[in-house]
Design goal:
alpha/beta, TIM Barrel, 5-stranded parallel sheet, two-stranded antiparallel ribbon
Length: 172
């Protein structure tokens, strides 16, 4: 397996990562009872040298990732997961983000996440994320629970990547 550096993080990741979402959700979309097959798939990828696993709360695969990596050296893996934005009218969006983060830690069976993203941020959500959610993300990072913070975009509503460009300019 070949390895490369993940952006500006300095993390060494396999050039082939394993996305644990997408249409099939590791084969569990059409057969929710195929969890053992998904665990085997993840383990086989790791045996072949894949060290980068990407999942998200909304994919419903964090628990299966946790089962697959149980007993493995955590520092040999780079785990990325994501949190869908709490509603802007939520009474405590930062608290909801932290609650979701802690749930991800529990499901994956780890005490830290290498890259934790706000998931599917659209231009209309940018200020909300920056002002109401990023402080909580930074706090989790300061506590050593997140190594690197990221954001992902919603491509369909933002084909010109406006949000990502603004995020890069402002180092969100």
């Amino acid at each position: 397996m070949e390895y490369t550096t993940l952006g500006k993080t300095g993390l060494k990741v396999s050039v082939a990562g394993l996305g644990c979402g997408g249409p099939s959700r590791l084969g569990m979309r059409d057969d929710p009872n195929s969890e053992q097959h998904a665990v085997s798939l993840i383990r086989q990828a790791i045996d072949l040298g894949v060290n980068f696993l990407d999942t998200a709360q909304t994919y419903g695969t964090e628990a299966v990732v946790g089962k697959a990596i149980a007993g493995m050296r955590r520092d040999a893996l780079v785990i990325s997961t994501k949190k869908t934005l709490p509603s802007e009218d939520h009474a405590d969006p930062a608290g909801e983000l932290k609650k979701g983060f802690e749930q991800s830690l529990k499901l994956i069976g780890t005490d830290y996440i290498d890259v934790y993203h706000l998931h599917g941020v659209e231009p209309k959500d940018y200020q909300y994320c920056k002002e109401r959610l990023m402080p909580a993300m930074r706090q989790l990072k300061e506590q050593g629970k997140i190594r690197f913070i990221g954001v992902t975009e919603g491509f369909v509503p933002d084909p010109s990547h406006t949000m990502l460009q603004q995020s890069l300019r402002e180092n969100m």
